Amino acid sequence: MFNKEVDKRYKETMVKFIRNHFRYSTMNSWNRSTSYANNIKLYNIDKPQDVDNNTWYDMMNLSEWQEKLSDLLEDFGRRHEWQWQAGINGRSGGYVVLYNGGIKPSGYSSYCTHCGQKNYEAVSDIGICGRCNAKARVNFKQTHMQIFTFFGKETDMHEDFEDWTLSDLRERVELVQDFDRLCDSITAEYIGICKNYRITEEEILVPKTIKVLEPIGGD
Ligand SMILES: [Zn+2]
């Protein structure tokens, strides 16, 4: 378990917790910036007896698992209004790292309902899409937002927490605890999938791009 109890009544216990927390590079080792992190190298966590080795190692590369993992990371970001985000870093994606970021207007005003192409210009009526030529370009109803992440930015690397108030500290501890809980859910989820599913092979039809006729004027 990554998540630990912290006595949030005292400055010392909170500072001790955040200063002793595991850290990892936010980008790469030569960038030298680090942030709160956890080593979740999934093959390092205790494999339950009833899960076979192949499933345990292969599940990591399955797209279903990758999607589940992105959902968990995304939920964390949304919970913290994208000011804090969790991302995967390190060789073989073994570390979950806490990142700084935010959300801002993307600048896009309209988009094509047919192909999804976004455009900086607004349309007064339904416009023609510059990419697929369909008459399907409409304005965004709400300001279109974009999430950004400061991948190179450190968190509390040179912080001694001397001037921090109790409530500042509590807030930071709670953030790190929520991050630790996320890492616990990631490993729990992984174990759950490995226990309840097995990997089988299936033949699929691979989509291929071909040229077709489409009536001008969209659908
Ligand atoms: Zn289009």
Radius of gyration: 23 Å
Note the beta-strand portion: 15-25%
The outline comes out as flat
Low-pLDDT residue spans: none
Characterize the biggest β-sheet: 5 strands, antiparallel
State the assembly state of the protein chains: single chain
Number of helices: 4
Distinct compounds present: zinc ion
- Tell me the series of helices and strands, N- to C-terminal: HEEHHEEEEEEEH
SS class: alpha+beta
Overall number of structural domains: 2
Cα end-to-end separation = 53 Å
Number of strands: 9
Helix proportion: 25-40%
Mean pLDDT: 92
How is the secondary structure organized here?
Layout: H1 11-20, E1 23-25, E2 34-39, H2 53-58, H3 63-79, E3 84-89, E4 95-105, E5 110-112, E6 118-119, E7 127-128, E8 135-139, E9 145-150, H4 166-196
Antiparallel strand pairs: 1-2, 2-4, 3-4, 4-9, 5-6, 5-8, 7-8
The chain binds zinc ion.
Q: Your description of this structure?
A:
This protein is α+β, with helices and mostly antiparallel strands. The chain folds into 2 domains: 1-99 and 150-219, no CATH class; 107-143. The protein is built from 4 helices and 9 strands. The strands form 2 sheets. Strands 1, 2, 3, 4 and 9 form a 5-stranded antiparallel β-sheet that branches. A 4-stranded antiparallel β-sheet has the order 6-5-8-7, with no helix packed on it. Strand 5 (110-112) and strand 6 (118-119) form a beta hairpin. It starts with 10 loop residues before the first helix and ends in a 23-residue tail after the last helix. Bound molecules: zinc ion. Zinc ion binds at residues 112, 114-115, 117, 129, 131-132, 134.
